[in-house]
Automatic annotation (TrEMBL):
Pfam families named in the record: Phosphorylase
NCBIfam families in alphabetical order: P_ylase
Source species taxonomy: Eukaryota, Viridiplantae, Streptophyta, Embryophyta, Tracheophyta
Protein name per Swiss-Prot or TrEMBL: Alpha-1,4 glucan phosphorylase
Protein function: Allosteric enzyme that catalyzes the rate-limiting step in glycogen catabolism, the phosphorolytic cleavage of glycogen to produce glucose-1-phosphate, and plays a central role in maintaining cellular and organismal glucose homeostasis.
InterPro entries with a match to the protein in the record: Glycg_phsphrylas, Glyco_trans_35, Pyridoxal_P_attach_site
């Protein structure tokens, strides 16, 4: 595997090198994509596919006595991210390369990626993911590309050319070393760069310690420096007060900006041209300290006037928000920021002072509004609102689906929207069809190419709608069903190896794979399964013959500190134990929890699924990209009218999916009713079964049951339950009619074109970044 990877890497590096020479020669405006997380998954098959050398490699390996697929399975995932946000960043990189955009990704090279989930007695345990153990063949260490990143210290005033200015005297310096990861485009010679920074001790710092004779401390400090890029934070919802998190953010932002400015200065003299050459995309609020850093460099180091520097900053930055709730937006306590980055705190205060003066012109003395819009939050813990910093500066603020943008406009950033409506844009997410069809479902890929008579859809996914024409063609149906069955077989083998549960290929494979969150309502899924189990238990044999057999597959990680999510995982296992071993049920119902869900598991599970579930309470999922992957793979969707599902329904027709539940605008009123809103009797019964210990662990599950009953049922499981069961019943009825099901499946794939990240990237390029393709000649 290592030898194979290195051989592919050689080819990648050639293209990557040529692309950069070409970019340098042409000097186009570049997009720099700053993200604290990239969930790349495996690289081998993606690289050979995009380089167009898969057949040659497979042949060569056969001659050497190896099987390509067996070797490819050896590769571990690069899991430098939590979930949707990070995987979306990876899809965007693939599209940027394929569409020949002059782009760079910047992030952190964590030594430990997202924790590995292991299940012991049905409980989640976390284990470190030391993914670099055997080296990473896909990266190129650039020891000579390194920058010092400073922290702590004090700010002093100085007079320069008769003008007072501030200088930051830092207290600590850490070296950022570049690791380059080539990202090949498909059907193009272009390969762009994802540059990830690793923290190394600064030699300068060590020298000082050596000269003072403090050898032991010098070694200890070396290790301390490295901790900055040590570990990815699991999405724990609150990072408030976590110094290491702030240091990670600033570390990668500072190194990236030094790199970007060095590249700019190689060819340009004046920062006036900066906005013509540089677009900076902030992926969520995590890298938004970059705004203060750009101001610091331009004002303190390049000695630009404040207003000129601010004008430049406002023209280069755009931001995408991935959260729905205001609580999901990062805040940094003023004390913490002042200690780690004292000069940046001053700069943010200055930005805020000018912002508030500006706001006063529009809103006069409306102090409530001013305090809501201020970058500084006055509260028990005085904090910097990173989202407001981004809103004040960025020329574009992007939502990730139409529903989400509406939420940003009307709730989360209402005041800002009223002031600057033109900044707010919708860029519905997408996923790359290269990874999610070509790599992960080669049989589907061949079918699509055969029926369309071209492979052009791999670069131009709009063509996929051509399948609609054949949605009723019996020959296509036969090929489609065979493809699905083979994929289900692969998945069934995987399930059996992992969990020892044997599943029937005739059953409907019904899947929910995503991070475990209350709002994503895996609990609704479980309660639905319990209801189904209860019904089967109460049936006579003739009724049982009419039951559509189901395999319910669930997978996902719970953040280590998220107790409720961990209880949901345990409930999945407790229910699975009972159901899977009940002779009354047999193949009619099987429940499987797939441990350690990650990108490569998704690549196996999605093509083998019949139905996928996206159950978020309406208004809570910013977009959802999992459903797009299922859609492309011809899995039918059972979903609430939330995030991207609303737009999917528009593309494929609501009649081709199973929609249920309260609508976004109904949710607030339903919530108002609170505990007076009773779920159905069926709901009460299944919750009671869990409460009464029907699945064991009675005391342990009590608080979980409370969240949907006594706790007020914030996510409206009780309210949506009846409609959820009805949608499930509709799915059963349709599954019995395999021709109808296959037709809906084909129409799903055919209608998935809009949800390619290629479309998303074109929108960003044109509406936010103002960049043009720069195609390296072959
Ligand atoms: O971003 C997700 C949203 O929940 C999805 O609806 C959306 O489709 C994707 C892509 O836009 N958000 C995340 O994945 N968020 C995180 O992973 C995260 C990570 C660190 C801190 C906070 C959130």
């Amino acid at each position: 595997m290592q030898a194979l990877a290195h051989s592919v890497r050689d080819r990648l590096i050639e293209r990557w090198h040529d692309t950069h020479q070409y970019f340098k020669k042409k000097d186009p405006k570049r997009i720099y994509f700053l993200s604290l997380e990239f969930l790349m998954g495996r690289s081998l098959t993606n690289s050979v596919t995009n380089l167009g050398i898969q057949d040659q490699y497979a042949d060569a390996l056969t001659q050497l006595g190896f099987d390509y697929e067996v070797l490819a399975e050896q590769e571990g995932d690069a899991a430098l991210g939590n979930g949707g946000l990070a995987r979306f960043a990876a899809c965007q990189m693939d599209s940027l390369a394929t569409l020949d955009y002059p782009a760079w990704g910047y992030g952190l090279r964590y030594q430990y990626g997202l924790f590995r989930q292991i299940i012991v007695d049905g409980f989640q345990h976390e284990q470190p993911d030391f993914w670099l153990n055997f080296g990473n063949p896909w990266e190129i260490e650039r020891v000579h590309v390194s920058y010092p990143v400073k922290f702590y210290g004090t700010v002093e005033e100085e007079v320069l050319n008769g003008k007072k200015c501030k200088i930051w005297i830092p207290g600590e310096s850490v070296e950022a070393v570049a690791y380059d990861n080539p990202i090949p485009g498909y059907g193009t010679r272009n390969a762009i760069n994802l540059r990830l920074w690793a923290a190394k001790p600064s030699d300068q710092y060590d020298m000082e310690s050596y000269t003072t004779g403090d050898y032991i401390n010098a070694i200890v400090n070396r290790q301390k420096a490295e901790t900055i890029s040590n570990v990815l934070y699991p999405d724990d919802r609150s990072y408030q007060g976590k110094e290491l998190r702030l240091k990670q953010q600033y570390f990668f932002v500072s190194a990236s900006l030094q790199d970007i400015m060095r590249r700019f200065k190689d060819l340009h003299r004046s920062f006036d041209e900066f906005p013509e050459k540089v677009a900076l995309q902030i992926n969520d609020t995590h890298p938004s300290i970059s705004i203060a850093e750009v101001m610091r460099v331009l004002v303190d180091e390049e000695h630009l006037d404040w207003s000129k520097a601010w004008d430049i900053a406002c023209r280069i930055f755009s931001v995408t928000i991935h959260a729905v709730q205001p609580e999901g937006l990062e805040k940094i306590p003023v004390d913490l920021l002042g200690s780690v980055l004292p000069r940046h705190l001053e700069i943010i205060y200055e930005i805020n002072y000018r912002l508030v003066e500006e706001l006063k012109k529009s809103f006069g003395q409306d102090y409530d509004k001013l305090s809501r819009m201020s970058i500084i939050e006055e509260g028990a813990v005085k904090s910097i609102r990173m989202a407001n910093l981004s809103l004040a500066c960025c020329h574009t603020v992007n939502g990730v689906s139409r529903v989400h943008l509406e939420t940003l406009k009307t709730r989360v950033f209402k005041d800002y929207y009223e002031l600057w409506p033109q900044k707010f844009q919708c860029k519905t997410n997408g996923v790359t069809q290269r990874r999610w069809i070509v790599v992960s479902n080669p049989s589907l890929c061949s079918i699509i190419s055969k029926w369309l008579g071209t492979e052009a859809w791999i670069r131009n996914v709009d063509l996929i709608s051509g399948l609609r024409e054949y949605a009723k063609d019996p020959d296509l149906h036969t090929e489609w069903k065979n493809m699905k069955r083979v994929n289900k077989m692969r998945l069934a083998e995987y399930i059996e190896t992992l969990t020892s549960v044997k599943v029937s290929l005739d059953a409907m494979f019904n899947v929910q794979i995503k991070r475990i969150h209350e709002y994503k309502r895996q609990l609704l899924n479980m309660l639905g399964i319990i209801h189904r189990y209860d019904c089967i238990k109460n049936m006579d044999e003739s009724d049982k013959r009419r039951v559509v057999p189901r395999v319910c597959i669930i997978g996902g990680k719970a953040a280590p500190g998220y107790e409720v999510a961990k209880k949901i995982i345990k409930l999945c296992h407790a229910v699975a134990d009972k159901v899977n071993n009940d002779p009354d049920v047999g193949d009619l119902l099987k429940v499987v929890f797939i441990p350690d869900y990650n990108v490569s598991v998704a690549e196996l599970v999605i093509p083998g699924s019949d139905l996928s579930q996206h159950l978020s309470t309406a208004g809570h999922e910013a977009s959802g990209t999992g459903c797009m992957k299922f859609l492309m793979n011809g899995c039918l969707l059972l979903a609430t009218a939330d995030g991207s599902a609303v737009e999917i329904a528009e593309e494929i027709g609501a009649e081709n999916m199973f929609l249920f539940g309260a609508k976004v605008d109904e949710v607030p009123a339903l919530r108002e009713k609170g505990t007076t809103l009773k779920g159905s009797l069926q709901f009460a019964r299944v919750v009671r079964m869990v409460r009464d210990g029907y699945f064991g662990f009675k005391d342990y599950f009590k608080s979980l049951c409370d969240t949907v009953e006594d706790g007020g049922d914030f996510y409206l499981l009780g309210y949506d339950f009846a409609s959820y069961l009805e949608a499930q019943a509709a799915a059963d009825r349709t599954f019995v009619d395999q021709e109808k099901w296959t037709q809906m499946s084909i129409l799903s794939t055919a209608g998935s074109g809009k949800f390619s990240s290629d479309r998303t990237i074109e929108e960003y390029a044109q509406q936010s970044w103002g960049i043009e393709p720069c195609k390296c000649p072959f």
